[in-house]
């Protein structure tokens, strides 16, 4: 904690802060982390106010919002922002919750705060109007009560019952739907290849991926296709670049996070799709060190994890993958079979 809070100081000032705090350790006896951090910050500010102010100004530029999965089909929506804005936003949510509770609302304080946040951000009390969630599930799970889990691209697997409730009975998701016309439900059919669950390809003559093809890639890839990266998809990338003759097609397209897409364009990196009929979409990536990795799109709901057979890839495309002995050492990471060369 001391190292972190004094990182902006010179070596001499860090030593001075350490000496100041160590001179009377009894003053911090029994103090928690927050109290210790406050004491360190105060000492650092006394030594070099300008450095501390510059550090705070830089921190403002790193404000952001992130989303990560939580257990039981829940999620953590986290915002990093300046303290004044954060305190103000929280105070508004508290005020709304207290007012609703005082008026007889039976929801808990936390529930009202969460619902109010969604309402203020999305602009609707239902919270999902105009937002494309792209819940992916089999027709059996949607209409026949099958237990095959559904998937929300960028989030992961949710129980089939939860998906049906979200689509067919939104009032049970924890948010009131005061106007049924506010909630629009669209069902898109996804055609897959028998046995493997590979999405049937679609193409475009455009340089940029059209909206429909972007949705296709989002559903197929779920998260960033770079091996070992599970960040949300931010860019829709030509695996073989447009400048080098790559086409704007599902076969030559992949979903990447922003960082991986920029990294892929640096010297030494290359990628190509492996057109192997009967298998899920696979990309071969070569790094500047000469190592080769393969990333296979995760299976859609209703298709088995074993649908991708590395031995079949080796058989159909001799030389494109390592020999069988090396294939045995492949690992499956976050739904993708990763095989280093």
UniProtKB/TrEMBL annotation:
<dbReference type="Pfam" id="PF01844">
    <property type="entry name" value="HNH"/>
</dbReference>
<feature type="domain" description="HNH nuclease">
    <location>
        <begin position="212"/>
        <end position="262"/>
    </location>
</feature>
<protein>
    <submittedName>
        <fullName>HNH nuclease</fullName>
    </submittedName>
</protein>
<dbReference type="GO" id="GO:0008270">
    <property type="term" value="F:zinc ion binding"/>
</dbReference>
<dbReference type="GO" id="GO:0004519">
    <property type="term" value="F:endonuclease activity"/>
</dbReference>
<dbReference type="GO" id="GO:0003676">
    <property type="term" value="F:nucleic acid binding"/>
</dbReference>
<dbReference type="InterPro" id="IPR002711">
    <property type="entry name" value="HNH"/>
</dbReference>
<dbReference type="InterPro" id="IPR003615">
    <property type="entry name" value="HNH_nuc"/>
</dbReference>
């Amino acid at each position: 904690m001391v190292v972190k809070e004094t990182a902006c100081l010179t070596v001499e000032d860090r030593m001075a802060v350490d000496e100041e705090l160590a001179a009377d350790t009894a003053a911090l006896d029994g103090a928690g982390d927050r109290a210790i951090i406050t004491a360190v910050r105060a000492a650092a500010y006394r030594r070099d106010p300008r450095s501390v102010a510059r550090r705070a100004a830089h921190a403002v530029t790193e404000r952001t919002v992130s989303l990560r999965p939580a257990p039981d089909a829940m999620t953590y929506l986290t915002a990093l922002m300046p303290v004044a804005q954060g305190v103000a936003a929280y105070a508004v949510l508290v005020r709304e919750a207290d007012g609703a509770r005082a008026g007889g609302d039976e929801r808990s304080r936390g529930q009202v705060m969460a619902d109010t946040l969604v309402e203020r951000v999305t602009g609707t009390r239902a919270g999902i109007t105009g937002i494309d969630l792209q819940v992916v599930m089999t027709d059996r799970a949607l209409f026949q009560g099958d237990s095959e889990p559904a998937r929300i691209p960028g989030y992961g697997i949710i129980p089939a019952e939860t998906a049906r409730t979200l689509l067919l009975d939104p009032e049970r998701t924890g948010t009131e739907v005061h106007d049924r016309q506010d909630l629009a439900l669209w069902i898109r059919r996804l055609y897959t290849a028998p046995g493997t669950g590979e999405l049937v390809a679609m193409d475009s003559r455009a340089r940029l991926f059209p909206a429909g093809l972007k949705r296709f890639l989002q559903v197929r890839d779920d998260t960033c296709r770079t091996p070992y990266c599970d960040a949300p998809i931010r860019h829709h990338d030509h695996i073989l670049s447009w400048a080098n003759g790559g086409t704007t097609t599902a076969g030559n397209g992949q979903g990447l996070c922003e960082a991986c897409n920029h990294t892929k364009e640096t010297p030494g990196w290359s990628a190509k799709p492996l057109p192997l009929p009967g298998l899920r979409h696979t990309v071969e990536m070569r790094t500047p060190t000469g190592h080769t990795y393969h990333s296979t799109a995760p299976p859609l709901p209703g298709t088995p994890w074993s649908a991708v057979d590395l031995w079949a890839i080796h058989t159909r495309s001799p030389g494109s993958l390592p020999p069988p002995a090396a294939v045995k050492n492949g690992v499956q990471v976050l739904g993708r079979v990763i095989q280093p060369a």
